[in-house]
Amino acid sequence: MSRKKTAILISGRGSNMGALISAAMSPDYPAEIALVLSNRPDAKGLERAAELGIATAVVDHKDHAGDREAFEKSVDAVLKDHKIDLVALAGFMRILTPYLVNAWAGRMINIHPALLPSFKGLATHERALQEGVKLHGATVHYVSAEMDDGPIIMQGAVPVLDNDTPDTLAARVLDVEHQIYPKALSMVASGKAKVSGARVTGSGNTNETETLIWP
Ligand code: GRF
User: What is the pTM of this model?
Assistant: First the structure.
């Protein structure tokens, strides 16, 4: 089996990065984590990746202030240097231009801490509580030109509890993120994910009994 060389792009602590690296330690996982790249030199996840023996790179957006495309060209050059096949964004806090999105169309995925298409953007847990939703969760999707858009590969839902704060809800969602991101990357890297319009099929899940009704 040829494993897809995958880069993880981060800006911070990198807990999703850690989940992907752990999954990829299994020899039959269809992706190999070949690079962790950050736009912030101080991203905690970089240290963790290096400790785990994974190649790391920094492309500091501040070196390209005001020129997003120049920043993305530098990122793209590093990805090409490492012969990367797939890109997984994991808390990468830069808005992408069509330049990078088009260069990696169909080969770049992202995790978002909400059940898209609800709650795009930031502060998703605060907004979920404000809106009073009873189910919240996380989404892995292909990256398209619009932020937090693109065909949905996998979602995980959690209940919203009466005594939740944004922090308790975030922790419950993060746990689900760590479960769905490795599964979604596996679907993409193995070629099982099939995109047709806005719809991605190929999870192999035929279990209709797992209907989640809350409360
Ligand atoms: C996660 O909640 C992810 O969904 C969002 O940014 C956060 C990154 O957390 N895009 P971590 O760096 O993976 O711990």
Answer: 0.96
